[in-house]
Amino acid sequence: MRFTRFARRIILLAALPLLLFGIPAATAATASAATSTGWIRLAHLSPNTPAVDVYLYSFGDSSAQIVLHHVAYGTVSPYEQVATGDYTVAMRAAGASATSSPVLSASVDVVAGHAYTVAGLGPESGLRLQVLDDQLTTPSGKAMVRIIQASLKQNVVSVTWGGDTLQGGLKFGAVSSYQTVSPGAETLTVSGGGDTATESVPLAAGTVHTLVVLDGPSGLQIDDLLDAAGSGTDPAGGAATGFGGMAPHAPSSPLPWVVAIGAGLLLAAAGGVRFRSRRAAAPVAGGRHQRVPAARS
Amino acid sequence: MSRGRHSRRRPLWAGGRTAALLLTAGLVAAGAGLTGLVITRHPEIPRAAALQALPAPTGPIAAVPAQGTAAVAEPASLVIPSIGVSTSLVHLGLTSTGALQVPPTTAVAGWYTGSPRPGATGSAVIAGHIDSVAGPGVFYRLSQLQPGDRVYVRRADNTLAVFAVTRVESYPKDAFPTAAVYGAVPDPELRLITCGGTFDYTTRSYLSNTVVYAREVS
Fold this sequence. Notes:
The structure holds two protein chains of two kinds. Chain A is an alpha+beta fold. Helix content of chain A is 16%, strand content 40%. Chain A is built from two helices and 16 strands. Chain A has helices spanning 2-22, 255-281, and strands at residues 37-45, 52-58, 66-71, 80-83, 85-93, 104-110, 115-121, 128-134, 143-150, 156-161, 164-171, 179-181, 184-192, 195-203, 207-215, 220-229. In chain A, strand 15 and strand 16 (220-229) form a beta hairpin. The longest helix of chain A has 27 residues, at 255-281. Mean pLDDT of chain A is 83; it is low at 16-34. Chain B is of the alpha+beta class. Chain B has two domains: 3-40; 52-216, Sortase (Sortase, Chain: A). Chain B has an eight-stranded mixed barrel with strand order 1-2-3-4-7-8-6-5. Chains A and B meet through helix 1, strand 16 and helix 2 of A and helix 1, helix 2, strand 4, strand 6 and helix 3 of B.
């Protein structure tokens, strides 16, 4: 039937705006991957212990994820990013077989977004693997610092930074807690017994440091480790990075246009139906035409 | 002249004039509506596929500093091949209200000088506009980045720091996770910031920020 074909065309035409609108709606997916990793670094801070091989195993996995060979006293590895979960750190004498039983081992539970230092501390006779929870956050505009006392020659040391005493009477093998300091570039002084070491140490806002006191070739030595760094001052809130020129014009509704299309199509349909019925009726019922005024030529 | 006789000879026009008028008027109205609809439709963000990806920059790639004590030069320019970004970097500070300063033009990105230098230990912050009042800005396609995409920062000493995207997030500005974006991290990372989400026409600002997290690769 003619009318059916005509109606089909109208429906198709009416569906066009829907097609135009439907496609962009499917592009709003946002990538969201939660942080499920943490960090581990490994350190050898036992002065009279020879070099070691350090192994990091994911719990229950017999093949090591990371192996550090010949790690000597005073060495601190960079942070390794690892998946969250349980890990085992094992120390073997340098060059020992990977299947030999380790001299020492410790387990670490890595929590998402946390960082850990696994350090061999103390004298060789009392060597222990200690898991240190590393700080990653600072109060805004401040620096954080902690001290690891790894000098055997000077059993007890005191540490000052500028005029501030960071730590007094820290014993060999001990790790201080982090403390907050005002940022600056001051002279760090480590003294123990008759021995003193000084070094200019800048502690910038938004940074976290671990200062390791070591036995150097001659006297005390200072190793400044940057545990983490962020912005000195956190900007407030978000960033005003747009002027809207490419923004979706959400407030301007497509409704008036759709209504116009719909009304137009209805009008055209009415006209079309009438047109066709007239045309079909014309040859048989010509008389009816008399009631309609004819167009003048 | 008899109308009746006349109309009998021309049955089509005589009977169909109103119908033809209706049909024409209807189609014109529908056409106008369709045109209006298409014109007022917001421009759709072109997909990355339609974009000419840039070649990866070449140059000496600086080693990832082991302990962050090594001096790292200031960042000079930024290249993100997969989304066609190649821009110099201006310096950004803070506004009088403590918010992040934004680049003076929408064509360049900027490095927040209060954050670590890209490639040094910590979270370096680079911000750029998504658009101007008239068209796309330097970070228009930032939200199209995928994990693994490479981001290159060329530094003042001509060395390159190479980063890989780890995640792309969108945050409402009134719930911006300051600690996650600007807070300290123990390895060399990058944060790329631009606007996104709904544009509020009354305040003339976007309601969300897009933040891309990236980590240095060796």
